[in-house]
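REVIEWER CHECKLIST
Item 1: Sequence provided? yes
Item 2: Single chain? yes
Item 3: Sequence as submitted:
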Amino acid sequence: MDQLTLSEIGARLGADPQVLRKHARQPGFPEPTGRRGNARLYDLDAVQQWEDARKSPAGTSQGDEDRLVTLQEAAEELGISYGSIRTYLGRHESFPKPVQRISNRPYFRLGEVRAWNARRARQLPTPSDTVVTEIDGLLTRAGVAAELGIEPKSVTRYVVGGIPQLRPFPEPARTIGRTRLWDRKAIREWGSHRS
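Item 4: Structure as written out by the authors:
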């Protein structure tokens, strides 16, 4: 049994020691087997097995689905930004609840987060190379932005009333799912009074 520091194990496995130290705080990571001075020693084979299981493709084993991850690691697993997943956690009641807290940091079951993301992805519109600006003669948010010569995020600010000195933004003429659509004439009229 090779007892090594995480830095030594990182060198052997070609892994970043900082990442290994982060992993060592996760539930299920092999416990230290001894000490050398102030450094903790770990069993090389046990750490390698844990890292291999962590890198296994999604859904290949029940153990992988039961693995506990931080919000940052969940974001990395899903290929989305940390900011996005924090937003999902705060705004979506259906987002999985933490199953454990370690040092006041929440840990989530990876399988539950993956399942939630799969449900969310099925509800999203199919991505395309072109941005849809018009549906049935009505303007999407991107269409409103193009009509007014502004960024789409500015349209969102106008819609939620984030700029009080402006006239109230026109109400959508129609809503399809969560997509709001506006009448071009109403948007042009509003835009003509925008300073």
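Item 5: Key structural point noted by reviewer: The beta strands are 3-4, 34-36, 39-43, 68-69, 100-102, 105-109, 134-135, 138-139, 174-176, 179-181.
Item 6: Recommendation: ____
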